[in-house]
Amino acid sequence: IVSRESHRENTIVDIGGVQLGGNQIQVIAGPCSVETQEQMDLSAKYVAEAGCRLMRGGAFKPRTSPYAFQGHGAEGLDMFRKAASQYKLPIVTELMDARQLDTFMEYDVDVIQIGTRNMQNFDLLKEVGRINKPVILKRGMSATISEWLMAAEYIAAGGNHNIIFCERGIRTFETYYRNVLDVTAIPVLKKETHLPVIVDPSHAGGKAWMVAALSQAAIAAGADGLLVEMHPSPCDAWCDADQALTPDELKKLMGTLGAIAGAI
Ligand code: PEP
Ligand code: MN
């Protein structure tokens, strides 16, 4: 279902009137995690002011350490929904367990994110395949392209064809940066599937100063959009502080993408 052979035309995924996979580059921005109502209200304001039309934020967080902040859960979705609604921004947030789905429906989450650690959680993929919400499927940190395509096929096989691929960097021998952004995956996926492809430069590089260069490379390589971490005050972020852009940096980055997209 997800292969280009089965469907020649590019698929456009509609998210509350915002189109992903069409002519316009879409940037999904926001903090790594939902912290406080004030932080989310400010974040939503800055996301909208930068010209982004979709917002991200994690309420259920897949943390390496069980002692690290795990997210506010349902309470976080409530804060996120309240903040984003003020600016009519559709919300993107990670689902870690099918038991959270009722809560996601209650807060009318617009896009479900499946994180890198769950790309091959097949039962979870089957569950999101049964519902009619757009899904961002992040690449497993050590997943091959064909494993990633098959993971998407699990979702599509259940009837949900609203799938967006997100390249977020893969594990290699290099330790200078958090992951290696696999730019090659962008033209490969555009060739192999009809579905939109976006890039998360934040979790790829792991440092805020790398985000603009990786974003620009992604758009030049044909990505349909970006998923970027931005925090009103990055040094105070509860999670992934090193890689969060400031509101000004996000605005500046947004100003550079149109010319690149227009040139290809
Ligand atoms: C995230 O986007 O919040 C996240 C945890 O990313 P990843 O699954 O790519 O590590
Ligand atoms: Mn993060």
- Largest sheet entry: 8 strands, parallel, barrel
Give the overall shape, derived from the CA principal axes.
globular
**CATH homologous superfamily descriptor:** Aldolase class I
SSE order, one letter for each helix or strand: EEEHEHEHEHEHEHEHHEH
Please report the total strand number as a whole number: 10
- Parts with pLDDT < 50 across at least 5 consecutive residues: none
Instruction: Give the name of the CATH architecture.
Output: Alpha-Beta Barrel
Head-to-tail CA distance between termini: 28 Å
Whole-number mean pLDDT: 98
Task: Output the CATH topology.
Answer: TIM Barrel
Q: Ligands bound here?
A: phosphoenolpyruvate, manganese (II) ion
Number of domains: 1
The total count of helices amounts to 9
Which structural class do you get from the secondary structure elements? alpha/beta
CATH structural class: Alpha Beta
Radius of gyration: 17 Å
Which keywords apply here?
36% helix, binds manganese (II) ion, transferase, TIM Barrel, binds phosphoenolpyruvate, two-stranded antiparallel ribbon, aldehyde-lyase activity, eight-stranded parallel beta barrel, alpha/beta, single chain, 3-deoxy-7-phosphoheptulonate synthase activity, EC 2.5.1.54, 15% strand, 9 helices, 264 residues, Phospho-2-dehydro-3-deoxyheptonate aldolase
